[in-house]
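Continuing from the previous page...

OK, I double-checked the sequence for ATP-binding cassette domain-containing protein against my notes and this is the correct one:
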Amino acid sequence: MSHGSQASVPWSKSSVSPPSVASRSSGSLAPAGAEAVAAIKRNTAPAKRTPFAHRPSPVPTIPASFRTRSLKGYFTNIRHSVRRTRPRTVRNVSVGAAIPCGEQERTGVARDRRPGQRKAKRGGAARARAPELAPRAPQAGPMRSLGTSPLLAIFRGFTYGYVALFAFGFFLPFLYMAMSFVPMGIMDRVGTSRSGSTLVTLILIAAVVTVTLTLIEVVRAQVLERMGTVIDEKLTRICFDAFNREKRGAGGSPAQALADLQTVRRFLCGPSLSAIVDAFWSPLFVCVMFAISPAFGVLILCLLALSGAASFATHTLVAGHMSHAQRLEGEANEFGLAVSRNAETVRVMGMLPFLTERWYGLHSGALGWRAAAQTRAGRIGLVPRMVQNGQMILVYGLGGFLFLENLIHIGVLFVVLLMMMRAQGPLQHIVTNWNSFQSFWLATKRLDALLRSVEAAPRHIELPPPRGALVVTRLVGGPPEIEKPIVNDVSFTLQPGRILGVVGPSGAGKSCLSRLLVGIWRARRGTVVFGEQDLTHWNPDDLGRHIGYVPQDVEFLPGTVAENIARFDPQASSEKILEAVDMAGIHDILRGLPNGYSTRLGPGGHTLSGGQRQRLALARAVYGMPRLLVLDEPNSNLDAGAEQLLGRSIQAMRDAGSAVIVVSHRISLLAFCDDILVLNEGTVQAIGGREQIFNRLPRLKAAPAAPPILDLAADIGGSRAA
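Thanks. Re-ran it with the corrected sequence; updated structure tokens here:
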């Protein structure tokens, strides 16, 4: 639909359009508007309904039984009855970009106008426009703020659910009031009239109110649980993707991120949120107590003020202690996990006693700060606790005085007690569980920072498989947490069907270069063009299918050997897995495994040697015959025979048309390379064909089978002098 028709006929997306509005619209209609008008003429609805179809059905009540899997079915009619005809823009908070037009019908979200585009006048024809392929201009900051936090943008989708919960809470105070007047009626009416029918009537009223209260509370709890599940589904995918797609900062922790998700979910579907909703109606009970007697109203206000002041003082004076305790607990947990990951080295080298003392120092420090906080909180809380325990005596004493003055009936005391409990209950729950509110607030701040740390990703189209050369131009980059770049001004071109060997001394930037080439780290300057497309133009998930990568430290995810080789692709075929195994030449390893391809790897699975891990990682890298293969020290744990198999594998990938980059300290692997690039201190010292570099650096050619390259800078300097 063009923007002109959208502006002139805002109802054209509905399934049934008002004839009066249709008659007033002028100009050409978009196809969807013409279809709606034709549907009116033949008194039938269009065949295709749009996400924002007008549904004039009445607002239904929410059933007590829930059989659907999401909240969409509960509040669909509520949502469409109050939604405006003009669609709102919904952005994908996981990447900070608007949902593309191809996803509009699937997600039910309409795009907004581009910045700077004028709204077409009513009756005017809309100007045609080409589909947008390039990303919009990014706003300031790593992630577009969306006017609010990314988490708040997600929670907005559940506004109608929380409105319904608030509506549930509207009926609860009146039901509680009805319950409180039952004992007063028994005391005043039945006690004086001795009427059995009155007693039965009051008991029946109490039973009906009790059943209604129970049903409303059960329904509210189920809706909260379902909403918490849906929110968890949305947040888990977004945060997991955001945390693993970008390089984590110094304070990042996957365990902390997942714990924050659980904290948010427990709060949003637990009693704390219900207490907040119920607290809105506490003033109503206070007003009723003022209506009964101003003295009772003043009493409840004094009790609430005393409780609030004590709680504020407690949390103000204890906040610093609890912050220190939580920080030390986090450090102790991280330190304990690090020791557990290196348990073998710790035991063999006799480091366990010293590490135990260090861990216990952190743990005992956390215990000390927490004990000090509890001691201070206990002293401050003595007065409100004493008042809370004696509030019944206060009510009875004040009520007895008012009764003696003939200002109230004796049965009013029951009403006052129940009203006081309902007025104080939600607030007391908030005060008592204030730590959970603080934990929720801190968790949302951390998750918000996690989402904001992910740069706004542009919208990518699906590119064809890369067929051209790998062109690196003036590449500068390094680890994100280090300001000074490690790789400086690196340029080269690698044609398909060629093998490039990257050598250099330790710390020369070889591994950094390999991470930049495969997109793990982003280049600060320069470009990496693969298949005539810059790496930044690719969707990372699509690009990964065309890249094979073997890191220095090989780890496998929990799963079988076949799943790890297939990169956990659920659509992987046995032929592609066997092809990767043949290409890597690891049949001898698989024959030695207890369950072959079904052997479990990862924590609790089969333990592989360093050489076996590297060869299995090679099979994972060559799975699917990627167009670019980057191997970072793939032979560091291989013997001579396995190294020959590695050389044959990379030559087979070269013959298949792939571009191969091999980073190695061993000279013997250079014999399989077509070109050699020498790095030193992050810059290119020499690059050229294998024989050319061998002639320029004779030490490479005359070296033994597997020596480390130590002083290439001296060789390069000597060759330049010659």
